[in-house]
């Protein structure tokens, strides 16, 4: 039923909403995984920002050497921050988009491209792959979110 707003009681039966829920869960789990990746790099590189985190390495000056930054930790943190800046808008705009009655095939295209772009962005950032790989993967995901926002505004405001 393209072009029709979904009723809340029908959401679980709505294929577009189910697709939205699936791909949103994937990108949110990917974003959560970045916390674990950052923690892994902190532990394996012994690079911490809080004094209490260095307690297992000794006290005083012997522990202070672990209060430092590390390029790999910072790279993982930047991936996580970039996820926060891009996945959260996708979640909100994607929900409005899913409720705006798009065709299933078009919605799946949006959701799949965004998810693939965010996963590629993570690998491009962590490996790191040469530019413009990371930049293009970011831009593709960003464009998908803008495309969904345009569809929502067009549906609601008749732009």
UniProtKB/TrEMBL annotation:
It is an enzyme of class 2 (transferase). Pfam families: MAPEG (PF01124). It catalyses: RX + glutathione = an S-substituted glutathione + a halide anion + H(+). The chain crosses the membrane at residues 20-41, 84-101. Keywords: Acetylation, Endoplasmic reticulum, Membrane, Mitochondrion, Mitochondrion outer membrane, Transferase, Transmembrane, Transmembrane helix. It is found in: Endoplasmic reticulum membrane; Mitochondrion outer membrane. Its EC number is 2.5.1.18. The keyword Membrane applies. It is a multi-pass membrane protein. GO terms for molecular function: glutathione transferase activity. GO terms for cellular component: endoplasmic reticulum membrane; mitochondrial outer membrane. It comes from the Eukaryota. Homotrimer; The trimer binds only one molecule of glutathione. Conjugation of reduced glutathione to a wide number of exogenous and endogenous hydrophobic electrophiles. Belongs to the MAPEG family. This is Microsomal glutathione S-transferase 1. It comes from Tachuris rubrigastra. The lineage of its organism: Eukaryota, Metazoa, Chordata, Craniata, Vertebrata.
